[in-house]
């Protein structure tokens, strides 16, 4: 895999009352924090051995001594703005630094595997954009070979409209795109499988 590939990870610092707020409304902030830490650990496990540069973007300050090893992950703080503005800025910075294939993920998808992320870069060899749709109507991954700002603008973030609106943009811009398997993001208690419900006493 080329050295010009970059994986961006958008995360929040695991702080009580500041993560998984929709989930917290059902299970309480303490359990929501436990679930989020579990999600972060899963995302690290999935990504740490992958053969590309990796950059963790934080909301609310960079933590140099957390679960993300400094020898494997670069670390930066996200800019202010809505999710689209923050993602657009991260992609723009990556291309300015010479990366050519850039993929972004969050930390909400327990079904994500190393193979799916590698598949995203493989698809970027023959497509302009790759998208991993989520069951809730958003997406858990998006990647591209250069910046298409329109994909991050005029979106109703955290709603079921995000994925269909993104596909409409791709078609309007006449960009070639590939879709990855449709996976589940963990945002509400209904998104937790039976094993996790048992683990967290729910």
TrEMBL record:
Gene3D superfamilies documented for this protein: Spore Coat Polysaccharide Biosynthesis Protein SpsA, Chain A (3.90.550.10)
Q: Which GO terms describe its molecular function?
A: transferase activity
Which key words tag this protein in UniProt?
Transferase
User: Which Pfam families does the UniProt entry name for this protein?
Assistant: DUF2064
Which InterPro entries does this one have?
Nucleotide-diphossugar_trans, Trfase_1_rSAM/seldom-assoc
Tell me what this protein is called.
Glycosyltransferase
Q: Which organism is it from?
A: Pontibacter flavimaris
The upper taxonomy is: Bacteria, Pseudomonadati, Bacteroidota, Cytophagia, Cytophagales
């Amino acid at each position: 895999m080329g050295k010009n590939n970059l994986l961006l990870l958008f995360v929040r610092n695991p702080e009580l009352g500041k993560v998984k707020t929709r989930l917290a409304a059902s299970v309480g902030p303490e359990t929501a924090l436990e679930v989020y830490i579990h999600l972060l650990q899963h995302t690290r496990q999935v990504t740490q051995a992958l053969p590309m540069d990796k950059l963790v973007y934080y909301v609310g300050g960079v933590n140099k001594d957390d679960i993300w090893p400094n020898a494997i992950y670069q670390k930066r703080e996200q800019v202010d703005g809505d999710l689209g503005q923050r993602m657009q800025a991260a992609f723009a910075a990556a291309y300015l630094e010479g990366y050519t294939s850039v993929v972004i993920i969050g930390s909400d998808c327990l079904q994500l595997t190393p193979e799916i992320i590698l598949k995203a870069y493989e698809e970027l060899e023959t497509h302009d954009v790759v998208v991993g749709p989520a069951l809730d109507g958003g997406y858990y991954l998006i990647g591209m070979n250069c910046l298409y700002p329109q994909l991050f603008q005029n979106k109703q973030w955290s709603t079921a409209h995000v994925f269909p609106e993104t596909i409409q943009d791709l078609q309007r811009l006449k960009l070639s795109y590939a879709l990855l398997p449709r996976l589940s993001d963990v945002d509400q208690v209904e998104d937790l499988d039976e094993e996790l419900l048992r683990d967290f006493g729910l």
